[in-house]
Amino acid sequence: MDLNALKPVSLYTKLSDYDYDLPRDLIAQHPLENREDARLLILNRRTGKIEHRKFHEITEYLCPGDFLVLNNTKVIPALLPGKRSSGAFLELLLAEEREENQWKAFIKSNARLKAGEEIYLADNILAAKLIRKDEDGLWLIQFDKNYQIKDLLVRTGKMPLPPYIKRTPINGSCFGSD
């Protein structure tokens, strides 16, 4: 490894700083049953030496005063197929619950959506009204106040998967579970 290629840590990074070649056959398509057995790559910045370890061994590399941030967020089955009143297919990814039955969502549609338009989900069981598209590109949507959206997600929602995962998302509930 070229030690000159190791750049000092900067507070300002560009997305291109994270570009690297990752062979497709090295991308796990399913999580490990025991997450602690996940692979851990260790780079010694002084020597350039690379080690392949397991995540449960990370404590061997931590020193007093180090700060380790763990992400314990849960992914919910928030990907929902739907239709416009014209019958055209769309896909909703619920991103954030704003208040009861009002969500911010990404909407994938082949045609331009309009504020005030109604969309239909879960084989037309539920209608939702598009309130507005915000600057962040997400739509604010209002569902029927008498409907339990989390129940709909458990029954018909799919887990959103990144594009490099090439398997079918499954239904499932993460509400109230570990």
Secondary-structure topology with pairs:
Blueprint: E1 39-43, E2 50-54, E3 79-84, E4 89-99, E5 102-109, E6 118-121, E7 126-133, E8 139-143, H1 149-156
Antiparallel strand pairs: 1-2, 3-4, 3-6, 4-5, 5-8, 6-7, 7-8
Describe this structure in words.
The chain is mainly beta and 178 residues long. It has one helix at residues 149-156, and strands spanning 39-43, 50-54, 79-84, 89-99, 102-109, 118-121, 126-133, 139-143. The chain contains one helix and eight strands, in the order E-E-E-E-E-E-E-E-H. The longest helix has 8 residues, at 149-156. It is elongated, with a radius of gyration of 22 Å.
Strand runs, count:
8
Radius of gyration: 22 Å
Largest sheet: 6 strands, antiparallel, barrel
- The residue-averaged pLDDT reads 85
Which geometry do the CA atoms define? Answer: elongated
Neighbour order of strands in the largest sheet:
3-4-5-8-7-6
Into which percent range does the helicity of residues fall? under 10%
Order of helices and strands: EEEEEEEEH
Bin the strand percentage. Answer: 25-35%
List low-pLDDT spans: 173-178
Number of helices: 1
Termini gap: 41 Å
Structural class of the secondary structure composition? mainly beta
